[in-house]
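Holo prediction — calcium ion.
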Amino acid sequence: MQQTKFSSDPDLLLAYEVALAAGKSLLERPAVLDLDAKSTPTDIVTQMDKSAEALIVEALVNARPNDGLLGEEGAQRDAASGRTWIIDPIDGTINYLYELPFWCVSIGLHTSDGQGLVGVVHAPALDTTWLAAKNQGAWIIERGHHRPIQVSDQSDLAMSLMGTGFGYSSARRTSQARVLNSILPNVRDIRRLGSCALDLCLVAQGVLDGYYERGVHAWDHAAGSVIAREAGALIGGLRGQGEGNEMLVATNPYIYDELIALLELAQADQDDI
Ligand code: IPD
Ligand code: CA
């Protein structure tokens, strides 16, 4: 078990240890990546996504046999304990493919009624890990040094740096471009980094002031949402809904309502017909 100075939560330490092992395996990149298309020809999975998920699943099943599992690459196991590990073996697969460093291993632990307990997001190519456990706070570990993190204090939306992401289908992107047209003139600038989990961690760290995206899946945000909330972020959807596939908005507390109002006005939770 990893020794850490910041937390003794056994689930957090387990997720951290497993994420480090998966990250190490992903850095051993083969000469050729086998690409299989998923929802569209540009939405791909590689043998590395699959082998990393298998490694994570084996470790978690051995350590927590009664917990459930949900993984982007197909892992599915019912929870006898009322707790489920939600796994994205590589969030930012396109970045991984193109050798851009913004990809990560994401492991979250949630109760069956949707409460986030633990989140670990490990970005091996950045040598950085973000971690949090419910009611214990959030931390970053950069090149071996850890420190607590919190969201930014930017209260002016017009001066806010905003992350977002785009889905894989052309139809979804058409509506996302329409929404971008409404948001971009009202913020400092937009970043599209290519990993929902990392976007949430950057909000947690105060590097981004906010992030929104339509079409994210549970494995994209299960870990990052625990980390961002523990760092002080507000997270939700539009029109009083919780965060989910329709929309996820995560910001510091000061710009949240204004961004939600803009996204609602832009009907950001709806696709174009
Ligand atoms: C994707 C990334 C991307 C987001 C997409 C996700 P993947 O996950 O998080 O930033 O815009 O919505 O599907 O495919 O790299 O695991
Ligand atoms: Ca993902």
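READOUT: The helical segments are 10-27, 47-63, 93-98, 170-183, 196-205, 218-230, 256-265.
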